[in-house]
Specification:
- With 115 residues, the protein is an all-beta fold.
- It has no helices and 11 strands.
- The strands form 2 sheets. Strands 2, 4, 5, 6, 9, 10 and 11 form a 7-stranded mixed β-sheet that branches. It has a 4-stranded antiparallel β-sheet with strand order 1-3-8-7, with no helix packed on it.
- β9 and β10 form a beta hairpin.
- The termini are far apart.
Length: 115
């Protein structure tokens, strides 16, 4: 099982990034996919989630209207489009594949929003 995040980096406030998480080793289409983030000194928080067929999404209030989660089951990939980034979005972002029986995590990727 592997979840590999990509697309992070340094961006100025107001900028955009798109995170990708490529999955392998399990049946991706059967898993709810989630993005979490953890800032230094803070607990890991749920940013967004998407249902198995992609029709049901939820976003944290702190990112609603700025971030959008999506998935492509043909490519075994989940995305997080992040617009209007703020310094408080700086964190390590993790993707998570979830069912009631299993939960898999990526290694995380750094997103830094700074001028």
């Amino acid at each position: 099982v592997q979840l590999a995040e990509s697309g992070g980096g340094l961006v100025q406030p107001g900028g955009s990034l798109r995170l990708s998480c490529a999955a392998q080793g399990f049946t991706f289409s059967r898993y709810v996919m989630k993005w979490y983030r953890q800032a230094p000194g803070k607990e890991r928080e749920l940013v967004a989630s998407i249902g198995v067929v992609g029709g049901s999404t939820n976003h944290a209030d702190s990112v609603k209207g700025r971030f959008t989660i999506s998935r492509d089951n043909a490519k075994n990939t989940v995305y997080l489009q992040m617009n209007s980034l703020k310094p408080e979005d700086t964190a390590v972002y993790f993707c998570n594949a979830f069912t009631f029986l299993h939960s898999y995590w990526g290694q995380g990727i750094q997103v830094t929003v700074s001028s």
